Description:
Strand order of the largest sheet of chain B: 1-2
Strand content of chain B: under 5%
Distance between the termini of chain B: 25 Å
Oligomer: heterodimer
Pfam families (chain A): SBP_bac_1
Number of domains of chain A: 2
Distance between the termini of chain A: 38 Å
Order of helices and strands of chain B: HEEHHHHHHHHHHHH
Protein name (chain A): Extracellular solute-binding protein
CATH class of the largest domain in chain A: Alpha Beta
Organism (chain A): Propioniciclava coleopterorum
Radius of gyration of chain A: 21 Å
Number of strands of chain A: 16
Amino acid sequence: MLNRRQLLGAMGAAGIGIAATACSTGGGQPAPGATAAPTGELKGTVHIVTPEFAGTDGKEAFEGKILKAFTDKHPGVTFQVDYTPWDKLNEKLSTLVAGGQPSDLLMTGMGWTEPFAHKKVLTKLDKNAVLGDAKVLDALVKQGSFNGDMYAMPFLLESRPFAYRKDLFEKFQISTTEPKSMEEFNSLLEEVKSKSGLVPLDMLGQNLRQIWGQMIFAFGGTQFSPDGMSITFDQEPGVKALQWMVDLQNKGLSDFNFKVPTGQPSAYQQDKTLMAWGSSGAWPQWLKQTPQLTEEGKLGIMLMPTVNGSKVLYQGGTLVGLSTRSQNSAAATAVMQHLITPDALTQASLFSGKVPARSDLPPNPELAKNKLLDFSVDNLQYSVTDGGTPAWMEIRGKMDPELEAAVTGKKSVADTIASLKKIAEDAIGRIK
Amino acid sequence: MRAEKMWGWFLTLPSLIHTVIWIGIPVVVAIGMSFTDYDIVQAPTFAGLANYAEILRDEVFWKALGNNALMAAFGVPISMFIALIAAVALNQGLKGQGFFRTMIFMPHVTATVAIAMIWLWIYSGDPSGLANRALGFFGLAPQNWLTNGDLALPAVIVVTIWQGIGLKMLIYLAALQGVSKELYEAADVDGASTIQKFFNVTIPMLRPATFFVLVTSIIANFQTFDLVYNLTNGGPANATTVITYQIYVAAFQQFRMGYATAQSVILLLVLVVLTIISRRVVGGTDGD
Lengths: 432, 288
């Protein structure tokens, strides 16, 4: 098991070996056809599309610090950065590809690698050349892989443990003992509701597809077969997971209507709920909008237990891929190598609040202040994510309306699963 | 005569070139692409009528078409009626009418994203949202306007009505100023009341404008995209999705350009049919 102090705190360079057994390192031969390590003097412009560094602060963090450190070493390279929010990223990438001028480097999300690699948007990467000696969990490397080859480099992770109001739990005399089973978790929600009179959990107001993705794992299932070419979410765990979400809404334990526009304070931040499906990436927003919630006595964190006695931690994330149509792949590959360096990754993590993909970063007191991040690093081994099929880009967009219909009572769980099955099978059928 | 015709063609040429290059060719290409399977990255492959066959089975597409029809059925007549009343009222030489004309026209020239932001606040499910405050004033419970599947579409229709009044009013105002005063004077001589003059002089004389407003409004309603995109993303559970949003999703989120263009072709056909029906119902003149 990885340890917080191993990863962010006291380990440092001297302690790298401690975590080595749990991590992937370089080694072995490059995959055939993979991009090679750049050599010689680098020059030219590298075009990057990123959803990660929003606003002027983000631009300053990315171009003013992270990329500047690169150009200090390689003055012949300039950058053209396209800042695109997550909800517009798919459109941006598709229009760039359609326009025949995709970026050199594309930052994408978890679950996107298989579709983009399958469509030959991403170049096969030489894992050794890109990651060097960086310690990156094998599970994360797998998230950037397709058919056993790495196509995208893990960069940042957005972990979602449950945050809860420790002070209010104590005030309402609610047990803070971490639930060990699904039953205990459900009982906790019921207890919060009965004692506080509030909707306990701010979860259904978020992305239903991601919630379902996590809960399928919590009920012991998977969404797709290992090769991604057949569905498994229609089996009992998938059905139970969706029923659990519907029950949350029907019992008033979470509320679909607690949606807020991006950037606005969540229901948890507005004291409408005592628990939140909190994202480590939301930490900077919490610090700005409701810093009191981040205080030691007020913030408790726990994980979702599973039916098999383990836990789950939903993991979104940002990966970096190299376009197959890159006009400057040597410089772009060097930029990838730079992005995974401790300094660059720490800067990126400090800005975004997200978990750095490599586990051997030197200690950084500022980074350690993000308690959700800190907790997530401790529990990375419980990471799960949704997706896992080359047809994911088509399927994911059609999931939310179906899941919304189930949660709002417009469609039964059985009908919803049947619709989703048809959608997924049609999409997978088109890529076979 | 021949020289006049040549001169006419010459004057039409810029518009003709523009139409062929920017409308004609894309339409032909789109129709051709609608018979292909095209994922943007790989070259298109001929798919025959597969995309159209899939559209027939696509419940979400028909839901979107139904939502568009509802938006047009409720939004167009209501906004046309309000625009007509506003145009007549603001054509009386009232004090401050310039200000009111500007205010009513303002939503038309305001970016839809900005409009959506304002209405997101108005429709906030929180009791502090403006719409819920209004309900609270009458002692009614707050509503989740945009996440309630029964309320979301009506809520979006209200915004389209509000946004669409300005341009319709402007067209009616221009048409009203073209109505001969002699007709009203003749009606006065005949002893017609204000309401009789409205129904027997104003409305008939505005028939060409009404036809134009009706057709352009229907087309605009079927092309609604940015409002839905910014207000609801088509949700909840596709309650507010519209055809253009589905085309966007297919093309840019699912990388199915062939399917998206097939949907576009269906939309084009729907609009052609609705225009023909509008012409029959309202009876536009040859000069329209």
